[in-house]
Amino acid sequence: MNNISAALVAAQAEMPAIPMDETNPFLKNKFASLGSVIRTAYPVLAKHKLAVCQMVTSDDLGRIGVETRIVHESGEYLTSTVYLPITDEKGKSDAQVAGSIISYLRRYSLAAMLGMYADEDVDGNAPKPAQPKQVAIDPADKFDAAQIEFEDSIAKRNPEPHVEKMGLATAMAIKSSDGTAYGEIPTDKLGLMHNQIVKQLKLTDLPSEKREEYEFKRDAIATILANRK
């Protein structure tokens, strides 16, 4: 691995920041599109005799994945494969859902392997707006999937429209404030998160932008919980 290691060290030393050219319509944070990542990285990689191959794959669990391989002209390479499940999304064909997942995985896989930053830091050093009044949460508050606290029950016997609007892959990829993907969070903790979000949504003085964010997160958690039942 001597050749590719030396080449990557040199390439990373020259790699510029990725321009964040798009904005998430729900969370309002900026992010770098796949095209922006490619336009930024490829010229530097080529200068150091490196190239990228990204191949679509799948597994026996019905998930679709992308294998990202960074290759050196010597033949040495590094590879990483990530998967997400294919789920039904209202208004989209299977091909459209698969295409969205592939683009998403290509973008994050490539940025991660090259050590590049592709999302705005919404929890770090950015100035924080004034926070709305918080509702006190009872420490003893417990989650019961049969009694989840919001007007649209997630029980499969009576699914609500908002649960069907968001695909499972999208919901699972959303991250909490500590960077953990919702799909990796245990059911009990997701339920508590959901209950806290719903209590925030009951505030009458909640800013519209914050309300939209909380509703998006509530629907994501509801989608995951409905699929875990």
Descriptive notes:
The chain has 7 helices and 5 strands, in the order αββαβββααααα. The protein has 2 domains: 2-113, no CATH class; 145-228, no CATH class. The longest helix is centred in the C-terminal third of the chain and has 21 residues, at 208-228. The chain is globular, with a radius of gyration of 20 Å. The model is unreliable at 121-164 (pLDDT under 50). The protein is an alpha+beta fold and 229 residues long. Helix 6 runs antiparallel to helix 7 (208-228). The strands form 2 sheets. A 3-stranded antiparallel β-sheet has the order 3-4-5.
Describe the global form. Answer: globular
Secondary-structure element order, N to C: HEEHEEEHHHHH
* Tally of separate helices: 7
Structural class: alpha+beta
Low-confidence stretches: 121-164
On the 0 to 100 scale, the average pLDDT is 79
Helix content: 40-55%
Number of structurally distinct domains: 2
